[in-house]
Amino acid sequence: MMQFPIFSRNGEIVITSFKVMSSHFRDNPDFQRTYWNRKSLPAALSNRFLGNPRSHFVFRDPVSRFLSYFKDKFRQEPARMLAEDRLKPENLQACQRYWLESTDVDVSNVPDACEALLSASIGDVINWLPENYTRDGHTMPQLMSLYFDWRGLNFRLKPVAVYLQDDPEDVAQLAADLKFKIAEKANSTSRYNASVSVTDAERDKIKAIYAADMHLFENSLDVALFERPKHIQAAVQQLEISTR
Fold it and tell me: How far, in Å, CA of 34 to CA of 60, rounded?
């Protein structure tokens, strides 16, 4: 089962994805990070059928999330590694290694690996994504974080509310509901906004890859639409293949 981070505090659970406010909760000592797995099965079942613990689902515009992933893993992080002389192979993240597998670069040569990441175009990554997006939590569809899937047991969690990261009012409501203060934007990639953009054709490709997430985004974040996983059947099948 793919490991998505979930965060708990005082009987409340926040379900999120990488590049969707996960750094905010990771860096907040009041929240404990865990994952949907065998150990968390009792809590998942209790949430699904009893509504306790209460869960809150944080979602993001799929295109915006992909752009954040690209700016962070292909621009900001490799530039930092070079500038800070963090040039050990273990400093490369899994999502970066997966991309580097498609190149001739030796990942043990970290300076070359960083240069390869920095030189990758956003179009190259979009074209690479369809065969690889199920391999890592940074590129998995966000809706997959709502499904507990372990050894053939598959069911959707039941959040009491869905919050859109892109909407300041939703973020403020999330902070109010969970009674915590939102820190300054964590791991911001805004410095690359001007230099990273997509064409209309590339945007359409991203939307096609994340069709299930787009369906949720375009239908007022109504997770009831996904009571059955028919909208993410292809993603589930690819997930099962990639984790065997």
Answer: 21
